[in-house]
């Protein structure tokens, strides 16, 4: 998967920082139990499961999204085509609703509700 262009990466980082701000009134980091859904190759594999998510502002210019699949029973998440750590350098993030965002990869879409 190619690295995102600067504008897409910057917009994606803004979405994550906005979520951190909504959750913590800060822009550093947020850890929470999110409601997560994941489509892999267009097929829904995880549907509204409560999973621990950590959002990190990795200054100066991108954000990190950690999803703790293993802690929530998905020990085979890599075999499913998912990643535990994603960044806004490589993954586009778009706001889905007032309290959710969607991460896009080459073969997956992950919706995180916070």
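^ structure tokens above, recovered residues below v
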């Amino acid at each position: 998967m190619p690295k995102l262009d600067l504008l897409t990466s910057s917009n994606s980082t803004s979405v994550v920082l906005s979520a951190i701000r909504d959750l913590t009134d800060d822009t550093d980091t947020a850890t929470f139990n999110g409601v997560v859904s994941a489509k892999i190759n267009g097929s829904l594999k995880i549907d509204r499961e409560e999973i621990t998510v950590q959002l990190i502002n990795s200054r100066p210019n991108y954000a990190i999204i950690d999803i703790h699949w293993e802690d929530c029973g998905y020990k085979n998440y890599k075999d499913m085509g998912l990643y535990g750590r994603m960044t806004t350098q490589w993954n586009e993030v778009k706001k889905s609703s007032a309290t959710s965002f969607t991460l896009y990869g080459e073969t997956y879409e992950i919706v995180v509700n916070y």
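The first strand starts at residue 29 and ends at 40.
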